[in-house]
From TrEMBL:
Protein name according to UniProt: Beta-glucosidase
Gene3D superfamilies named among the record's database cross-references: 1.50.10.140
InterPro entries assigned: Glycoamylase-like_cons_dom, UCP028431
Domain called Glycoamylase-like: residue spans: 210-427
Classification via Pfam families: Glycoamylase
Organism, scientific name: Pedobacter psychrophilus
Coiled coil residues, start to end: none
PROSITE patterns: PROKAR_LIPOPROTEIN (PS51257)
């Protein structure tokens, strides 16, 4: 009798647990696309709100929930730029009250105003408590013009969003405008027709990284051309970014074409963040110059990345139509630039790759988002949304986040839904002048 009672007791517990789990799954599956995207945006927004560095209000480089005291005071400049745009999204979607959002943005911008700058450029990392540079590497202890350009992109969006608001909002808009216009892009040419990534007072130009060819850096050239105080001429773009025309380098994967030489001569396009970071504000759709069509390139980069994961040439567990996306992210062993190449595909999927591509591939991206949320939520979903990366192949699921990957998810979902950040950035008068200076055409140019 005792055994029977115990059995019945266990059976009852199992039935309750099973029914509860079924209801959770059913509830998740019943979310509309609208509700699902709201959920992802709201949760991801918290990285830049609740998870921000406390003194500055800016975006932390990383948040590792399994290492709660690891690098909590390090601000990432690029992630902060994306976070500025993300807070605008949060205000627009009423995740926070507008006044609270304005106060937070003023806090961040005042921190950026007093933080160390190097001919107007911020460093890659900043100590949030002091505003002093934290060296990214031995030689990289000064200005990082690429990360700075990501901040400039966000500052333009803030200016446009608040410029017609109340007195405090106008003050915020004016401060944003002042900060980005203080970046000395000309200095970073070293009097050559190319933009250099780094400079520091101690090591000067020893990093020696002129920026050539397609990667995440187009926005740097656009902002440099747009700058009314320190603007570059078109020759810097033509000889630098476009490599005197050599950027035109057609290639394809499974009949999906690419037009451009990608940094490192990546045969199938580099890590997928190259199609995101520059295009959070800069709308690639219909954006063309004499070298190619940027809307086509960004979309085809994603289609190739997706198809590679579907083809799965290395036969990794978990790859497929509902789980895809290779980009630079956390990896099983540290950090890696995952990409659709045999030597760079390590069996690690980064949700940001597919999620941030939703504006280019809504069907494929939504399929992945829904699958991960309904079928893998217990393994890869946490306090700030989807984890940075995971591997079914290695059974590796770490609750870790990188700010520079969380930001594009929040922003690009909004661009897919409303075009908000694209509209703000592309409507700016200086941006319009800069794009025209570089001979771009776009349906968004007046």
């Amino acid at each position: 009798m005792f055994c029977k009672k115990v059995f019945i007791g266990f059976l009852s517990i199992w039935l309750v647990t099973a029914c509860s789990q079924k209801n959770k799954t059913t509830s998740s599956n019943q979310l509309s696309d609208h509700q699902l995207l709201d959920t992802v945006q709201h949760q991801t927004f918290q990285y830049f709100w609740d998870g921000s560095e406390k003194n500055s209000g800016a975006a932390r480089e990383r948040i590792n929930l399994d290492q709660p005291f690891y690098e909590t005071d390090i601000v990432a400049t690029g992630a902060t730029g994306f976070g500025l745009m993300g807070i605008v999204v949060g205000i627009e979607k009423k995740f926070v009250a507008k006044e609270d959002g304005v106060d937070r943005l003023l806090k961040i911008l005042n921190f950026l105003k007093t933080a160390e700058r190097f001919h107007g450029a911020w460093p890659h990392w900043i100590y949030g408590e002091t505003g002093k540079v934290k060296p990214f590497s031995k030689l990289d202890d000064g200005g990082d013009l690429v990360e700075t350009a990501f901040v400039a992109q966000g500052l333009v969006c803030i200016k446009q969003y608040f410029k017609n608001g109340n007195l405090k909002e106008k003050r915020l808009a004016n401060l944003a405008d002042e900060l980005w216009k203080g970046i000395d892009f000309k200095w970073y040419t070293k009097n050559e027709n190319v933009l250099y990534w780094h400079w520091s007072p101690k090591n000067e130009w020893k990093m020696n990284l002129p920026v050539h060819g397609f990667n995440e850096c187009l926005i740097m050239y656009v902002m440099a051309a747009a700058s009314p105080n320190y603007g570059i001429n078109k020759a810097v773009y033509d000889e630098g970014w476009a490599m005197r025309g050599k950027i035109k380098s057609p290639r394809n994967y499974n009949n999906i074409p690419l037009q451009f030489f990608h940094q490192g001569n990546a045969p199938h396009g580099g890590p997928l963040f190259w199609s995101h970071y520059s295009f959070l504000g800069l709308n690639p759709n219909g954006l063309k110059d004499e070298y190619g069509d940027y809307g086509l390139e960004t979309k085809n980069m994603v289609l190739i990345n997706y198809q590679w994961c579907v083809d799965n040439p290395l036969k990794y567990k978990g790859y497929g139509k509902n789980s895809w996306g290779l980009t630079s992210s956390y990896s099983v062993k540290g950090y890696a630039g995952h990409a659709p190449e045999i030597t760079k595909d390590l069996g690690v999927i980064a949700p940001t790759a597919a999620i941030s591509s939703i504006a280019y591939t809504p069907i494929e991206s939504l399929s992945a988002i829904r699958y991960w949320y309904t079928q893998k939520k217990d393994k890869i979903w946490g306090k700030y949304g989807f984890y940075d990366a995971f591997s079914d192949q290695a059974e590796w699921y770490k609750p870790r986040y990188l700010g520079i990957d969380q930001g594009p998810e929040l922003v690009m979902i909004e661009n897919y839904r409303t075009g908000l950040l694209w509209k703000l950035f592309m409507s700016d008068e200086d941006v319009q002048k800069g794009l025209k200076k570089l001979n771009f055409t776009s349906p968004n140019l007046k």
